[in-house]
Amino acid sequence: MSTVETVPKLRVLHPPAALLQARERRAQRLLLGFVISGLFFMLLPGTFLGVWNLISISGHKGAAVSPAWIQAHGHAQIFGWIGTFILGIGFYSIPKMTGSSFAVARGWTAWALWSSGVLLRWLAGVCPWHWRLHLSVSAALELAAFVIFFHSVRRHRPGGRKQPASTPSKEQDKRLPVWLLSVMTGTVGFLVGLLINLGAAVYVSLYGAQPVFPAALEWRLLALLAYAFIVPTVWGFSARWLPVFLGLREPSDLLLRGSIGFVVAGSAFALAGFAHVAPWLFAIGAVQSAVALRLFARPERPAKTTGIHVSFPWFVRTAYAWLVIAGALAICAAYLDRMNGWTGASRHALTVGFIATMVFAIGQRVLPAFAGMRVLYSPRLMLCSLALLTAGCALRVGSEVPAYEGYWPPAWHILPVSAICELAAVTVFAANLLLTFRQPPAHEMNRPSAA
Ligand code: HEM
Question: Smallest Cα–Cα separation from 338: which of 284, 403, 399, 391?
Answer without folding.
Answer: 403
